[in-house]
Amino acid sequence: MTSNTQILSHTILKEKQRKIRGKFPQPFSLRVHRAISWLGRAEREKKDHDASFIFYWIAFNSACAHNTSSLLKLSERSNFRDFFGKLIPIDGEHRIYGEVWHHFPGPIEIILDNKFLFQPYWHDRHGVSGFADWEERFDREKGRLRTAQWNRETKLVLTTLFDRLYVLRNQILHGGATWNSSVNRAQVTDGAEILPCLVPIFIDLMMDNPNVFWGAPFYPVTDD
After folding, report:
1. CA-to-CA distance for 131 and 168, rounded, in angstroms?
2. Residue 9 has what DSSP assignment?
3. Phi, psi at 207, each rounded to 5°
4. pLDDT tens track for 116-125
5. This prediction's pTM
6. For the chain, what is the radius of gyration of the CA atoms?
């Protein structure tokens, strides 16, 4: 797969951060510093897709998650929607759009069509009431996504993609998957290819727009 978008490395983003961090508000500076640090760790995992996916997800979460009283009541999907709702309008060069629609349309579509990354499927399998209709929900969502793909609705597709990847993240981090397993290898491999292209763009866009309200990071550094 090829892309016209330059893959932003940890080194490139770190150099940029050092040049402009004096203009960053302190909470934002901490958020970017943490995200870039995990990006550097993720880049060291060239062969282990499970580890790569985990470290890139931590980098993403460092950039995305923020601590506000209202956000604590929101779902992860709402959190993603809020984050992407801030990123896409400031993406003047349409870099996110390019990655979603030109670089990874195949792998993204495969992930979106994977029922094993659709949380209602697992709710039903675990006997949670109210999810026996997961197949109908899945089909309805696929219909909405086909319309969104046709209309190039990047925010909806991106939010749903990360909702699916969040299920994969839970499977790995909560011990619901075997390391280097052949069972879920395709989605882990695709996720480990998609995140390295998207997450650095997210961080770069944030650094270009430090005055957007990104929220305070979780677990700030304190003097207590």
Report:
1. 19
2. P
3. -65, -30
4. 999 999 999 9
5. 0.89
6. 18
